[in-house]
């Protein structure tokens, strides 16, 4: 194995800047997609537990649809297919005038895909709340909305913080798929550096180190959140 | 938007079929390799030998904190360099998938091994079995059985993930669809068709997993 080591390349102009901007895009995609994923995921997850069968069926269909198509295919559907099947004006706008088309598409695809995974966690969290609590609130004359607002959601959203941690970290990893539609995020930049300099080992190592650091920082933040949202005497595991 | 052209799909079915065979073959080999390596990692992690379990834990945590695409690029770049000759993207991708999935399978197998009650191991020891005999005849068969639904779900995820070999231009189902889409200029038809095929296969798989869970939980 003969290979010319040159770690310095990572700190040279312009490669250093490329890595930094790639990191910026990765974080931007992941955090924006998380906002969509969390809000849509909560709504769909709640929707799967409500008494109304139409809403339940619709939300189940959402989860099954988005979970059973690979994220890469979904990326392409949003990027290549959606502008074609939309009404002419909107399609043309998406293709020509939409600001940052790769970024926007990646955020939408990643957000709605992750929403289906979060919905499953939210549903599991709501179902983990002992049935007696919901029954008690009905007996007190709470409406369905009040039962969710005051009983089910405050408990279940705190119960699901640990599994949410892994979803939150997964969204950073999955954001790397944005490179397939041409967004120059972290991994794409590291590939580009390796093509320009032939220092593939260094470029990939840099990307690896940054991804691992993101995971470590994310884990620490979520652990703090976990401690903060911990329900005393409740999380003895298994409800 | 033009009319949806089924002709282009039918015309390219043999080509897409070859791609699908490669996807399934890659999934199959990666599941087998991933489960074997993952089980070894889980055993190493639970072995109680500090350096061994630290090494296994370090490996699993490292792999689980980076994207699959990065691992694919790593092996696509490293394997030819280490061997000194190109071996084609199929084997690079296969090695990458086995190494990547092993980390996830090892977490599943670890949970499976821990779900076997301690008394079983002690019973094995008291009948004079050695470590490997206990694992082979007592622990692992039960661990596998308890974890079958999760192992299968992970297999479905793995099948979806094989679409990522697109980035190293390996001609699986996804790459084939994309080749046809670009050469025929039929992006809408091909990507909708690809989504439909993946959806049907994965939905069938997840319904099967649900049945398995119900059968086991009773």
| Mean pLDDT across residues of chain A | 90
Low-confidence stretches of chain A: none
Q: Biggest interface and its residues per chain?
A: A-B, 40 and 36 residues
Fraction of residues in H or I helices of chain A: over 70%
Sheet/helix structural class of chain A: mainly alpha
Order of helices and strands of chain A: HHHHHHHHHH
Give the ordered list of helices and strands of chain B. Answer: HHHHHHHHH
**What is the makeup of the main sheet of chain B?**
none
Structural class of chain B: mainly alpha
As a whole number of angstroms, the C-alpha radius of gyration of chain A is: 22 Å
| Distance between the first and last residues' Cα of chain A | 55 Å
Tell me which oligomeric state these chains represent. heterodimer
State the helix count of chain B: 9
Overall shape of chain B: globular
Number of helices of chain A: 10
Secondary structure: helix percent of chain B: over 70%
Mean pLDDT of chain B: 92
User: How widely separated are the two ends of chain B?
Assistant: 52 Å
Description:
The complex is a heterodimer of chains A (239) and B (218). Chain A is mainly alpha-helical and 239 residues long. Chain A has 10 helices and no strands. The termini of chain A are far apart. Chain B contains 9 helices and no strands. The radius of gyration of chain B is 21 Å and the shape is globular. Chain B starts with 5 loop residues before the first helix and ends with a helix. The interface between A and B is large, with 40 and 36 residues.
